[in-house]
Write the C-alpha cells for this entry.
Amino acid sequence: MDQAIKSYGSQEVLSKLQNKDPLFLCVIASTLTSRLPGITGAGASPELTDYTPAADVELIIHGEPQCLPEIPQTLVEGQAAPTPAVITKASIELANIPFLVADAGSAIKPNIPYFNINNKVGKSILTGQAVENPEEIFNKGKILGETLSKFTNHLIIGESTPAGTTTALGVLSAMGYDAWDKVSGSTPENPHDLKRQTVEKGLQAAGLRDKIPTDPFKAVEAVGDPMIPAVAGITAGSKVQVTLAGGTQMTAVCAFLKEAIKDFSFDNVSIATTIFVARDENSDIHYITKQIAPINIFAVDPGFGKSENLGLKNYVKGVVKEGVGAGGAMLAANLKGVSVDKIRIRTEELCKEIF
C-alpha cells in the first residue's frame, strides 16, 4: 500500500481489498437545494449546478462534457479548481477499472449509457418535501446492488450531487445525529451557519422539529436528496465488499442504512475519501461515523501540494476537497499497483488536455 494512503480503521480490510477486481459505479443526482446562493461551490453559478453531475460523468467517459460548453470547476474568491472527476478519470484509466453510471435523479441526463434508478430531481429542502418516494428509490437501488454483485467482488460507489453535504446534514440531523458544523463542503470557508439555517427551516416546514429522531425514509423525504436512498439501497443489495467513495455525504448513507435495516453490519462496508476531507479543520467525518458504527475510513493524499497546476494546488487550500468518488478511485487504483504519484502526474496531464 502507498504511503499516501492513511487508514483510520482495520488494516485487514485493506489486505482483503488488494486481491479484488473492483467495479466503479458513480451515482448522479440533483437537488434544488444547490440553487441556494452560497450553499455550494460545485458549479460556476447556482443554476449551472444542474449540469455538474452529468458533465462530471461525461468528462470521465468522453474526455469532455457534452451537456454544456464549459468544464465544471469550483470558483471561490478567484480560486479555481478542476472538478474531481479528472482525478477519478486518471485513476480508473491507469488501473483499467470498469466505470458505470446510475441516475438517481439528475436534472440533466448525461449523453452516455446509464442505469435508471429515479428520474425525479430532489426539491429544495426548504420545502420540507425534498424527495418523492425514497423507499422506491431504495428498493430499486437494492436490485442494482444485487445485480452488480454478480460482475465484481468489490463494488466502489461514488457520487456527484451538488449541495450534497447540506442534504446529508439534513438527513443526519433528522435522524438524531450530531452533525452540526461537522459536514464538509466544497469551499475553504464552509458555510455552516447557512447550512444549519437551511436544514432547520426544512425540518420546520416538514413538521419534524419536535419529532427527532425520525424514520430514515421520512428524513430523506423531508430534507434529503435522492442520492442517499439510492446509494444506501445499492449497498444493502450488494453481496460483495463495498467502498463508499466520498466524504461526509457517505456518513448520511451509513446512518440511513443503520436506521433502515435492523442489525445492518458494516463488516463489508468502508468509506474512502481524500485527505482533504479526513483532515479538514472545518468538518469532522470521524466524529460523525463514530456515532453510527465502527466504520473503516481510508484517506488518500494525492500530493497536490507538489503539483505545478495551480487549480490542483487549490485543493490543498480547501477548494473542492472530494467528489465523483475521487478518493475511492485513487484507493482502488493504488490497490491494483498504481502509485499515487502516477495518478497525480496523469491528473496533471488530463488538466492540460481538458481545461
About this structure: The CA atoms of residues 182 and 284 lie 5 Å apart. The radius of gyration is 18 Å. The chain has one domain: 5-354. The mean pLDDT is 94.
